[in-house]
Amino acid sequence: MSRRRPRPAWQVADFFALEREAEVYLAAVDACLAMPAVARRLGVRPQATAENARAAMLTEANVERAVAPCQATQERFRSLLKRSERQRQRLDYLHDRMHPLTALFCGITVLALLVVAFSSWPIALAAALAPLLTAAAIWRHQVWRMHVLLNLREWALRPRVALLDRRTAWAAAAWSRDLQGNGVRPLTDRVVEALLGEDHDSLLLADNFHGLRSPRNPQYVVESLAARSLTRKIAQLESGGTIAVSGSRGAGKSTLLETCAGEAGFAVVVQAPATYSPYDFLLSLYVRTCESYLVHMGHVPPAFLRLSPLRRAARQLLPALRKGLTALAFGLAAGSLVILGLAAAVRSFTAQQWPTVRARAVDLWHEAVAVVLDIWKGERIGAAVLVVAAGVLLWSLRRWKRWRAIREGARVVLVVAGVGLIVATFFSLLGDDDLRTLVGEAIGKTDGKADGEGFFLLFVSLAGLFNLLIEQPWEIRGRILLTQRWRRRVGWVLFLIGLVLLFTLPLTQALVADPENPLRLTVALTGLMLVKMVTWSPVSPIPPLVTTCRDELYRLQTVQTASSAVTAGPPQLLTAQTTSLSTLPPNFPELVTDFRALLTEIAAEQHRREQRVVIAIDEVDRLGSDTAALAFLGEIKAILGVPHVHYLISVAEDVGASFVRRGLPHRGVTDSSLDDIVHVPPCTLEESKEILERRASGLSEPYKALTHALSGGVPRDLIRYGLRLDEIEAKTRFVELTDIAEQLILEELSDTLAGFRTLLGKQRWTERTGTILVAFRNAMDHLRPTCSCGSTELRWALEHVAFHDLRGHLSEEAAAEVSDEARELLDEASAYALFSLTLLDIFGRGDFARRRDEAAARGPAGALELLGRARQELEVSPYSARHLIGSIRTAWRLQEGPAANPLAAIPLPRGTECPRHPRVPA
């Protein structure tokens, strides 16, 4: 009975034909396990280790899943690998030490080729016989023939083997990339998730928190519904208008304004002062607009510093002087070289043609002078009449509309003349008989060999020039052979080598050494100068609006004084009169008029360029109250309504509500100041997930839901709580949801209760009602000193505050002594404690995924979205918030009342450290 050959250790079923295939697969697995997103999850739990993940990836089922999407690249790699192995075996078979006769035969062959390349044909024919005679002598001896043939076959096979090895390596790299992208990488995530357990989403394993650490970075901004609504409203108001952006603090109004300002052609973003006067605010906005426009147009705003006149003059003259000296230095050097090269040709041409030209010019001058003298003496009456008629005609043509067309025609004629001179220079080479004779003699001396060499060197130069012009790397099948930097270097080397060697050929030397070439260069340069002279235009002058903005900055930020003195009278009695003029700051109406005029000109210029002008006024909600904000809008209403200017003003929700009530029994300032309003609501759960995914990629869903619930969907608080997650993980090394949620919720609750206790401390209390403050202090003592893990006392304390009943804890007489304001604060604190207790019950317990699905199946009240709405409702009313929280607790099957006796006092906090979670200082 035949015995089966044992399977190699590297073989997994029949997926790998050769050992190197298994090595590539294992390398791909190790690379995927070493990726930060995967390596961060390994070792978090006991069973989720790199060894276990690697072993799972080597099972037959997983290897089949990983290799299946990459069969095409695997087959190509396997085919090349088998061919490479066969060629490598053949090379090993042919391997033999080099025989001396092999070296002799190769040396004679190389020498013969050199002689053939650089000798006449009789010597070349004789040299070609030497390798043939040597080969015949070796062939007659059987041993010599065997060794030489083995050496030659081995040498011929080595380049093929090297090329095949290189192709195999490329195919292995392609298969490895395919595995990591389509096969092993997705499977690795599933394997690691399986090792982590069903609740792997409860681990805090975000890729990074960079976006949370840069809240104002534009690359992390996520487009919201409010942003799209604002874009539509701006597009609808084509001729400009005023749009208010309302919302709660931290809702993203400033980010929205900055984003819209960044998309505009010209934008100014200013902050509304907390305390202001209309004049100072408009003056600041005026100055900011002028400075922004100067920067937008590429100019530097003037700096009003106390400098000496010499330093001010140096600041103005040094840049122009530096630029002029640079141009002068290069111009003198270039002009000297051109004059040196063309001096002889110009002197020769002048010596030949100047006497004839000078004689003709002198004759024309004498004739013109004679005609002018005859007209002056009155001897040519007809000519005098023609001169007078010409003068009158010339005066009448001073406003002729066709002068511009004539000037343009003259420019075209000069350009055509310059181009004609340049083209004529090259055509003169073809018609030069002496040059053709020289070229023929140069070609004849080389026996026709220079043609091929010249074309080859010309091709090398053109190839180098092509590499200089193309700004792309060399790629073959996606593999970069030469980067752009090295490609430019290779291009310069090829271009210079080809050009230098091209000038060593007799044909090139004959073309360059023609005696008339300097004259041709002179004509070509003259044509080029004609073209440049006509097409040259001076540096564009400073735009009028730039000058206006600079003048306005001087007028608004400086006081200008001018003095003049006049002295009159005889030396014995002198009288003097002095006049002094100084500028006055503009008053408010004048400032409004000038600002609107300047902004109108800027907007008209941008409108012609199909650009938009945006003036964004932020932080109006910092003014303290809706009355102050409405008063601010009423004061700045005079500058609104500029054509093609969009004003974006961030306001509080109260001001937005005032605009929404327009047309009802009362009219407010918003009715006449604003054209439209965009409300920025808190984010929904999906929008919060999108923000956190952009700013903290890899953060799992439970943590996104937790931060959304604590922040109520307010982006600023959402980012703050996201950073708190990173902070807690860094200082405690917790990664489980139950630990991190407990830590975060209790820290937030401790800070909130401390704030409520401070506010309650400002109320009037008696001996009978002071127990309420004692209860708050005891509850805070449970939150501060030790870990809350497994603390029944903390649970009782939270329930005591969350289900607080004033009449149940105090007698009727004592409860009547509590003020209405204190009662309202107690109800708000109790509602927030109930909200925190609900979050602890939802996120602070294990098996979150199962409980979440069960709660969602019970109805809408079990959705995680409602946790954020409950946090928003706390800002409206504690009573409506408590009702919503009660429905959430019912959907999640949480107790609806305290587990302990609500009338019992809060027990003392645990005095020992938690055995599982050591105390962590805040």
Secondary structure elements and pairings:
Layout: H1 19-34, H2 36-39, H3 50-57, H4 60-67, H5 71-94, H6 100-118, H7 121-140, H8 142-196, H9 210-213, H10 225-236, E1 241-247, H11 253-263, E2 266-271, H12 278-296, H13 309-377, H14 381-396, H15 403-430, H16 433-445, H17 449-469, E3 474-476, E4 479-482, H18 484-502, H19 506-512, H20 517-535, H21 544-557, E5 561-568, E6 575-582, H22 588-608, E7 613-618, H23 626-636, E8 645-651, H24 653-660, H25 669-673, E9 676-680, H26 685-695, H27 701-711, H28 715-732, H29 737-761, H30 771-783, H31 792-802, H32 806-809, H33 812-816, H34 820-843, H35 848-857, H36 865-874, H37 878-891
Helix pairs in contact: 1-8, 3-8, 4-8, 5-8, 6-7, 12-21, 12-22, 13-20, 15-20, 16-19, 17-18, 26-27, 27-28, 27-36, 29-30, 29-34, 30-31, 31-34, 34-36, 34-37, 36-37
Keywords:
mainly alpha, five-stranded parallel sheet, two-stranded antiparallel sheet, single chain, 922 residues
